[in-house]
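User: Some background: our group keeps a shared notebook of sequences we're curious about, and every so often someone picks one and asks for a predicted structure to add to the entry. Today it's my turn. The entry only has the sequence so far, pasted here. Could you supply the structure so I can complete it?
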Amino acid sequence: MNIEYYVNRIKLELTGGVLHSEIDDDGYKNIINLALQDLNRYYDQSALVQSTAKSCIDLTELEEKNHIKIGSVAFVYRSQGTGMAGGAQTTDPVSIGYWNMAFGSRGISTWAQRYMAYNTSRQIMNTISTDLAFKEDKAGRKLYVNYSTGDNPGSIAIEYIPRLESVEDVVGDFWIEILSRLSLAYAKIALGRIRTRFTQSNAIWAQDGETLLNEGKEELTALRERLQSRSNYIYPVD
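Assistant: Of course. Here's the predicted structure to add to the notebook entry:
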């Protein structure tokens, strides 16, 4: 959705398309961008990007190469199974055991022993050094990844939360609706402050500024509490 969609929606909800609004379209765009900055703190619609498996990955270079904006890294995955190189199995002992069994070497017992020894060695490696443990250096824009198994997987998949820089970056019906409601709440607060700046004691009619101001504050608080409670990711605090 582009920003005109949000502007038209807010104007329709506030004015019904009939009443005059004290805020022009540029003002509404500023309000929507303010809501977008607020949404960045709660947005958790993740995406995946492939990267060459290195101990230190330059996130700026990764962004430029894939035309993305990384807000925070959530998880790191192997793109290939262990023992895979170029898509072909090489030294996986399970595969070796299978061929030995197929050609009548020592049957299922040998295969099971190989498999148990293989799993035990993997567990020991992961106990000593956690596989794919990572540390994101936000200031230096680097991602440090640990590979405990000793074999380089060739490529890894990085799950990340995008950094929202424009309303077009917001994807998913849920988040589009949340941005719309956040923008509407901020617009109500802005209009409420405008209409309550001056009061008329002798007027036969009264502005709805106080009502809009209270509605906007209540809706904004409710939205923030809802977003805080449904967060899918917990990021470590250094």
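Suggested note for the entry: The radius of gyration is 27 Å. Residues 47-162 form one domain.
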